[in-house]
Specification:
The protein is an alpha+beta fold. It contains 8 helices and 12 strands. Strands 1, 2, 3, 7, 8, 9 and 12 form a 7-stranded mixed beta sheet that branches. Strands 4-5-6 form a 3-stranded antiparallel beta sheet, covered by helices on one side. The protein has a two-stranded antiparallel sheet with strand order 10-11. Helix 1 packs antiparallel against helix 8 (265-291). The longest helix is centred in the N-terminal third of the chain and has 47 residues, at 3-49.
């Protein structure tokens, strides 16, 4: 093989490497966009759920999924209507609930419904048996704000503009003392493993709703927690005609612990930073492969 043939072979190999690197760059960019979209959706849902403050509801954002160290729960509500585990989804396209099935376009999203039931079961597992039947799952969609439906497995699906009315339509099942006690208990249980991984994050992961409120001694002798502000009456209803869910039968708290879980945000951010470092090295390698490697050894 002559010198010219060797240079041609080196150029071909370099071009193949460049193509592989470009594909890796595209995959990294798509993953970063997906993480960003999910984060924006969760913030929007958290902001909307904060409107439940005057009605005696507490909110836990981005907490640990019991039994799954690298998975999180988007939002957990505790209030007069019970415990609601909210899974935020930022889906695109046409989404509907037809014949008790959740659809995105032509595809049945049964896996997402099963995941919501698994989250519900995980939260129920850390509660005392008398309170487990008050845990309900809810999928909140940011891209379809006016949607509302209930699946055959009793999972509520609500758009972001209807989620508050859906929660307020739940019949009252807990008094204020029990609500505060459950909130304190879940605040401890849903941050244990995440706190062990990163103690500095514990104070940011679980907190009462975002307005200042008087300190309330929770039931059961637990540590004091911030109580929800009063607005004439706690646990009041808005008078909306939004149909209540969870009344046909209790949430299936015996569902398996399977289902898809999101990686924790801290892991996603770490992966994104690592991805940027890899991109810099990949870019340097592309320059080397294209402009240096073909002439190497001449």
């Amino acid at each position: 093989m002559g010198a010219g043939d060797g240079a041609a072979e080196q150029s071909r190999l370099a071009a193949e490497r460049v193509q592989r690197l470009k594909r890796q760059l595209d995959q990294a960019e798509r993953a970063t966009k997906s993480w960003d979209a999910g984060s924006v959706g969760e913030r929007l849902v958290a902001d909307r759920l904060s409107r439940l403050i005057p009605h005696g509801w507490y909110l836990l954002n981005d907490v640990h999924w019991p039994g799954r160290p690298k998975a999180n729960l988007d939002h957990v509500l505790v209030g007069p209507g019970g415990v609601v585990v909210v899974d935020a989804k930022n889906w695109t396209g046409e989404v509907s609930v037809a014949a008790g099935v959740l659809w995105q376009g032509r595809f049945a999203r049964t896996q997402s419904v099963d995941g919501a039931l698994a989250q519900c079961a995980a939260v129920a597992s850390v509660l005392a048996p008398p309170h487990r039947r008050f845990v309900r799952p809810l999928i909140c969609l940011t891209g379809q704000p006016d949607l509302f439906g209930i699946t055959n497995s009793d999972v509520a699906v609500a758009g972001v503009d209807r989620v508050v009315a859906a929660v307020l339509a739940l019949p009252p099942v807990l008094d204020q003392q029990t609500v505060v006690g459950l909130y304190a208990h879940l605040g401890e249980q849903l941050t244990q493993e995440s706190a062990a991984e990163s103690p500095a994050v514990n104070s940011l992961s679980v907190k009462p709703l975002t307005v200042k409120s008087p300190t309330v001694e929770p039931a059961g002798g637990g540590p004091p927690v911030a109580g929800p502000p009063r607005s004439g009456q706690t646990g009041g209803r808005s008078g909306s005609r939004q149909p209540a869910y969870g009344t046909r039968r209790g949430a299936r708290t015996g569902a398996g612990s399977g289902g898809s879980g999101r990686a924790r945000k801290s892991k996603a951010q770490h992966d994104a930073a690592s991805g940027m470092t890899r991109l810099m090295f990949l870019a340097a390698f592309v320059v080397f492969a294209v402009y240096v490697l073909p002439y190497w050894g001449r």
